[in-house]
Specification:
The longest helix has 31 residues, at 90-120. This protein is an all-alpha fold and 241 residues long. The model has no long low-confidence stretch (mean pLDDT 84). 77% of the residues lie in helices and 0% in strands.
Length: 241
């Protein structure tokens, strides 16, 4: 299942588009400080900080189409009976999708960050920021994958994703525990911790290294549980298209 899903991302150009989208996000991370803050040159860590901001602020707008298209394409091809004959339910389907998405996202991020670190001759934040970029992207992948599983309409899945993202930011403004809803938004305490980390010479984020890891584990678990509950809808939409 994992192998066939990976081959499918190549056949439907998902992987190539993801490479381009991430390249554009890294480009934005470089251009924005130049144009907005009138910075003439960027050091290694400030550049990573800018790219991280792009991931958290623009990722929820740039990733949804890719993910929603991948799943809605399966629905339009009416693969429900095919998956059922192979014993693949909605849970196994989402696991295979998220596994391939995560592997491709992590692989591209690691390569791009390696190139940046090589250019700047600085690998001090390579592992930490590669992990954060991947987790931020994967959190969006989880939400959109679940919505795409529920809604066969590509547009509806994307609109629902954007609505939830905007609503989570508004709710997070109340502060406290509600900040966890929009965990990576620039208004949250964790974003401030990342900024402090990148402004320092620390090798890891102080007082918060495990927080994003625990967060994405919870998000993945919730996604898998909910996907299991929509098993009947998954097969029905897979037959009706």
């Amino acid at each position: 299942m994992i192998k066939s899903e990976f081959e499918k991302t190549i056949a439907n150009k998902f992987l190539y588009i993801l490479i381009i989208v991430l390249l554009l996000m890294y480009g934005l991370g470089y251009i924005m400080p130049m144009s907005l803050d009138k910075v003439h040159s960027l050091a290694y860590r400030p550049l990573l900080s800018s790219i991280y901001t792009v991931f958290t602020q623009f990722g929820p707008m740039m990733f949804p189409f890719l993910i929603a298209y991948s799943i809605s394409k399966d629905y339009s091809d009416r693969t429900g009976l095919f998956y059922r004959s192979l014993g693949i339910n909605s849970l196994k389907y989402i696991i295979s999708k998220l596994t391939v998405f995560a592997m491709e996202l992590a692989g591209i991020v690691l390569i791009y960050n390696f190139i940046l670190s090589l250019i700047y001759h600085d690998f001090s934040a390579y592992i930490q920021m590669s992990l954060l970029f991947t987790i931020v992207g994967l959190s969006t992948f989880c939400l959109v994958s679940l919505l795409s599983l529920i809604f066969s309409s590509l547009i509806l899945a994307i609109r629902s994703s954007l609505f939830i993202w905007i609503l989570s930011i508004v709710v997070a403004q109340a502060g406290g525990i509600l900040q966890k809803i929009a965990f990576f938004d620039s208004s949250t305490s964790f974003h401030q911790k990342v900024s402090v980390y990148l402004d320092s010479n620390y090798l890891i984020i102080q007082d918060g290294f495990w927080t994003p890891i625990l967060y994405i584990i919870v998000v993945i678990c919730i996604t898998l549980i909910l996907s299991k509950l929509f098993n009947c809808r998954f097969f029905r939409l897979g037959v009706e298209g």
